[in-house]
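We modelled each protein-ligand pair independently. The example shown here corresponds to the magnesium ion entry; the chain sequence is given first, followed by the ligand as SMILES.
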Amino acid sequence: MITALAEDRTGLPEAKFTGTRSTAESRMIDVARLAKVYLTRTKKVWAVRDATFAVRRGEFVSLVGPSGCGKSTILNMIASFLAPTDGEIRVNGKLVKEGVIPEGLGYIFQKDTVLPWYTVRSNIGLGLWYRGMPTRKIDEKVESLLQLAGLQGYGDVFPHQLSGGMRQRVALLMTLACEPQIVLLDEPFGALDTHTKVLLHRELLELWGKLGQTIVMVTHDLDEAVSLSDRVIVLSSPPSHVILDHRVDISRPRDVFTIRETEAFAEHSQIIWRVLGREFKHTDMISEIVAQ
Ligand SMILES: Nc1ncnc2c1ncn2[C@@H]1O[C@H](COP(=O)(O)OP(=O)(O)O)[C@@H](O)[C@H]1O
Ligand SMILES: [Mg+2]
């Protein structure tokens, strides 16, 4: 099924929509005609021009697009760290205001954000401690999370004693400990080798299967996007808009290892790559022009 996403007021090519339309009630995140211009001392950087998309409750959506097209900027606006220049964002029906983090929202960055001077246990429990949860309850919760992520026995070690993949797993648990309804992930596995990455994919899907959060993940890895997501949203080169909203209708539960061998996986990847690859090429042409 391919239909136009929305009326196109920009004169740009219309986004193609192959996803599931959300009703107002089922929408957890609503991004409408979003724009962001950064003002630096010397110039204006027009990062996002016109981004519109919605994410349903419990859905796993990935955002992909050329480098610099405003993926992190969009996540930062959803999290309220940045104000949009134009357009609006609603989370759970409420308008997002700059500096007011939407209720139930958790954020995971590419670089693991664990604190080196705390043990794994203290890192994971930190958010709960800030919220005033009694120590005994924190201990119970942390222990069950450690088990869930296969980290039992690692509670009392320090982050520098862990591998990069394990540290990122701890960062994931730090965020999940506070039971966010919505999780924003900004290239969370970008710095990891393929083996560690796919192991973490399996864990993320297992945790998501049990906890059912709404997830928006930025990634530059198309295979990662296809194997994990319900939908993949492709952004154009900057200033960006949505050029493809594609539903990955591969059944769940998914095996992150064997899914990559399937025909369905190849088909979805091709459909997205056809659009994304063209955009990469275009962005490259822009940088060549700038470099002249
Ligand atoms: N604080 C800032 N000030 C000025 N320009 C910025 C700032 N943050 C990001 N940009 C620019 O905005 C564009 C989009 O950035 P970003 O959202 O990080 O892209 P992506 O995550 O897709 O790679 C880039 O051109 C980047 O250089
Ligand atoms: Mg980024």
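Residues 263-291 form the longest helix (29 residues).
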